[in-house]
Write a structure and sequence with these properties.
single chain, 130 residues, alpha+beta, 5 helices, 4 strands, globular
């Protein structure tokens, strides 16, 4: 698998993307990219159309990035591309062990908690809330 940087203007969004990305999520992902870097490339097909990573692409745009890392999958059929697009989003859905997540949140700095997407209220004691 080869990861290469390409100009964002050359990447096309898929007009029938079924996964919704609210503005809040896009901003959270943008904050994550800003803090940690672009740690997950966007996956595109042979026409530079997004298969995986619509939210990352929108986040990169609001950050004003000129290029971003991509993996190009040129050998998939159109049906395989559609199936992968749906599978990537659907198969990532799973419940959280909230007790373990809260335990982890309590071990990191509060400014990093903001980057996780979890609500700070999960870790702030009731009498310490502002």
């Amino acid at each position: 698998m080869e990861i290469k940087n390409i100009l964002i203007e050359k990447i096309k969004t898929y007009s029938k993307n079924a996964k919704k990305h609210p503005d809040k999520q896009i901003k959270q992902v943008a904050n994550s990219i800003k803090r940690f870097g672009f740690v997950q490339p966007i996956v595109v097909d042979k026409n530079n159309e997004v298969i995986i990573g619509h939210c990352r692409l929108e986040s990169a745009k609001i950050l004003g990035l000129k290029e971003c890392p991509v993996v190009m999958l040129e050998n998939l059929t159109d049906q395989e591309v559609k199936a992968l697009r749906l599978a990537d989003n659907k198969l990532n859905e799973s419940p959280w062990d909230l007790d373990l997540a809260i335990e982890e949140l309590k071990t990191i700095d509060i400014d990093l908690v903001d980057l996780t997407g979890f609500d700070k209220d999960l870790i702030i004691e009731p009498d310490n809330k502002d």
